[in-house]
Specification:
With 140 residues, this protein is α+β, with helices and mostly antiparallel strands. The protein has three helices and five strands. The protein is globular and about 50 Å long. The model has no long low-confidence stretch (mean pLDDT 95). Bound molecules: adenosine monophosphate and zinc ion.
Length: 140
């Protein structure tokens, strides 16, 4: 994709601080990090959404994210916890439509968010949960 910034990074036409690369996956530092160490793991193919992504590549992306999390934990980059975050769709906060998994080191008091407010949630009854489970189960 000519106008995709992450494809440009893969082609090395745009700058990036790369931490990992293989035939399928590239990982590099986020340019506007939530905290130091914030890394993005992307497929080398231009898949805009999870529904486009071959499951095996999804598995590789998660494996690489786990390796990065361990490497950060073993480094002197401050890391008290981690968020793995994948925004699929504009409504979910996706801004770059080349799928990517964020690896975000978390620090107490960093005010980064990622907490679901209980004010916006309600606890459904078991009947409703069973109904949703049945619909999902049927599609798997
Ligand atoms: P999202 O909102 O999940 O689509 O996240 C997109 C992420 O890509 C943001 O955290 C940006 O800071 C990051 N980003 C955008 N352009 C670049 C770039 N050229 N190099 C590294 N990270 C980038
Ligand atoms: Zn792309």
């Amino acid at each position: 994709m000519d106008d995709c910034i992450f494809c440009s990074i893969i082609r090395r036409e745009a700058q990036a601080s790369v931490v990992y690369e293989d035939d399928e996956v590239l990982a590099f530092m986020d340019i506007f990090p939530v905290n130091p160490g914030h890394t993005l793991v992307i497929p080398k193919g231009h898949y805009p959404s999870l529904r486009d992504l071959p499951p095996a590549i999804g598995g590789r992306i998660f494996q690489v994210a786990m390796q990065i999390e361990r490497a950060i934990r073993n480094s002197d980059i401050p890391d008290e916890g981690t968020n793995l975050l994948l925004a699929d769709g504009a409504v979910a906060g996706q801004e770059v439509f080349h799928l990517h998994l964020h690896v975000i080191p978390r620090l107490s008091g960093d005010r980064a968010g990622f907490r679901f407010s209980s004010a916006n949630r309600a606890m459904p009854n078991r009947f409703a949960l069973d109904g949703q489970a049945a619909k999902i189960k049927a599609g798997m």
